[in-house]
Amino acid sequence: MVEIVFLIPLLTGVMAFFLPRTAGRPLLVVTGVIHLVLSLYLWIQRPQALLETYFSITAEGLLSLLVISLLFFLISIYTAAYLKKIEIRSERVFTGSMLLFLSTMTMVTLSDHIMVMWIAIEATTLASAPLIYTHRSAATLEATWKYVLICSVGIALALLGSVLITLSMDIGGVDVPVAFSALTGEAGRLDPLWLKTGFVFILVGYGTKMGLAPMHTWLPDAHSEAPSPASALLSGVLLNCAYLGIFKTNKIMHAAGLGHFSGTILIVLGLISILVAATFILKQTEYKRLLAYSSIENMGIIAFGTGIGGLGAYGAMLCLIHHSLIKSSLFLSSGNILLGYGSRLIIETGKLAGRMPETFVAFFGGFAGISGFPPFGIFIGELFIIIAAFRSGHYIAVGIFILSLCVIFAGFANHVMQISFSDVRATIRMEEKPAMVWPQYALLLTSLVLCIWIPDSLYQTIIQAVNSIGGRF
Q1: Cα–Cα 20 to 30 A to 93, which of 115, 165, 175, 452?
Q2: Torsion of CA 173, 177, 178, 184, to 10 degrees
Q3: CA distances (Å), 377 to each of 201, 384, 410, 412, 442, in order?
Q4: What DSSP assignment string belongs to 6-31?
Q5: Which regions of the chain are under pLDDT 70?
Q6: By the 8 A CB rule, do 375 and 448 touch?
């Protein structure tokens, strides 16, 4: 039964609120193992859901589910060691919220009904908000309220977009379940005006949660104030879940022959996001906010590639997978830096290569990967997007795209060099434990392996997802 994959972390999450304080640490790891095994089972067997109207296994959902499961397993190992190093007022709330967050994100990947998808994405906001407020300071309170308020406004717009799509069904005389798969099959009969209007509202609504500019303003604060394991989940996984809502709606648009309309809007929002990230990365003063703006950049790249379509959509899928792996590794490494230096300010860190060599290797490797250096997969994804943009005649757009990436690399590299090699007087207060280093190595190694060798089942799943939005190439 498909539903058990999100029911198990739901039950263990509720349990964590009532167990002894430290019992949540092994519970995180055990749940991560069970969830990974069940996700692999779904990948291999592709069973039917018990509630077929509401849940189903799709190519894009399976890709996101497998990434979520692998990331949570490795992050849970890091978190168990991380919680031994810091004091959290209510560790039960933290571990319980982590597990509930896993449950809601899993529900997003398996949702087929438009309203179930909406409920699941809204539930991710409620489950993750306590993670941002973990340290209970004025800054975390502000970041949490901004996150809840802005994302709730966005999700309300997405709800309106979903209602407008049902209106396009009524006007077109379509009588099928309000599910993405059913609507994709009958897309040609949907009223195009209301379908396009619904897509715009859904793109803005879920784009807010995805971190697309100019709806991105919650993201830098939330990612920088949350504990590093939570930041890794927010950036590496949550943003993908919001993208799924956009991707599934885009499938309906392509099936209705409106792919050019949706693609153009995605290209514009993608470029705006990349330009905004480039502007703020240049003068950034905190390394966790630096990584947050890098996430905005990568979401823009994914939106841009999806809008281009064809080979660009394939490149966007590669960027989606590899961004999750590499950015999660970077946020976990940033947790080590914060524990070691006691500051988020770039100017107060330095000589990382000599003082924390194992963390430095992971952090610098993550920087190389997220910047699009070969042999990491983001390089291949961005290359495919650029080739597809030239093939389709988007010369001005791809010119802005390439120039922005160069500016972002220059700014990012300057900050990373300062953190890694600049001279600063600071006392390192953390010993590098294996459990707080090797999860980052495992994430980076996975990215490297997938760049060199993609299993045929994974490749076919990516192709199936890309073909659903007219991505034949």
Answers
A1: 115
A2: -80
A3: 32, 11, 20, 18, 15
A4: HHHHHHHHHHHTTS-GGGHHHHHHHH
A5: 426-429, 470-473
A6: yes
Cis before 375? omega within 30:
yes
d(CA 202, CA 109): 17
Interatomic CA distance for residues 421 and 424, integer angstroms: 9
Q: Which residues contact 52 (CB under 8 A, 6 or more apart)?
A: none
Average pLDDT of the chain is: 91
Q: Residue 423 domain-assigned?
A: yes
- Specify the pLDDT at position 169: 87
- Give the Cα separation of 157 and 173 in Å (integer): 25
Residues facing 244 on adjacent strands: none
Note whether residue 66 is domain-resident.
Answer: no
Q: What is the pLDDT of residue 470?
A: 66
The Cα–Cα gap between 226 and 129 comes to: 9
Query: 462 in a domain, yes or no?
Result: yes
Q: Which residues pair with 55 in a beta bridge?
A: 111
Question: Which residue type, as a one-letter code, is found at position 50?
Answer: L
Domains: count for the chain = 1
Structural domain boundaries, residue 436 = 258-473
Whole-angstrom Cα distance, residue 363 to residue 365? 5
Q: Which two tokens stand for residue 218?
A: 């919650």
Q: Is the dihedral of CA 415, 419, 422, 423 positive or negative?
A: positive
The two structure tokens encoding residue 402: 């390439």
Position 427 scores a pLDDT of 66
Exposure pattern of 285-295 as b/e (b: 16+ CB <10 Å)? Answer: ebbbbbbbbbb
Residue 307's Cβ-count burial label (10 Å; 0-12, 13-18, 19+) is: buried
3-state helix, strand, coil in the chain (%, to 5): 80, 0, 20
Q: How far apart are CA 273 and CA 229, in angstroms?
A: 25
Return d(Cα 154, Cα 440) in angstroms, integer.
32
136 in Cβ contact with 89 (< 8 Å): yes
Cα-to-chain-centroid distance, residue 423: 34
CA–CA dist 254, 239 (Å, integer):
23
d(CA 323, CA 327): 6
Pair 435, 217: CB distance under 8 Å: no
282: amino acid identity, one letter: L
pTM: 0.95
Exposure of 177 in the CB half-sphere (CA atoms within 13 A): 14
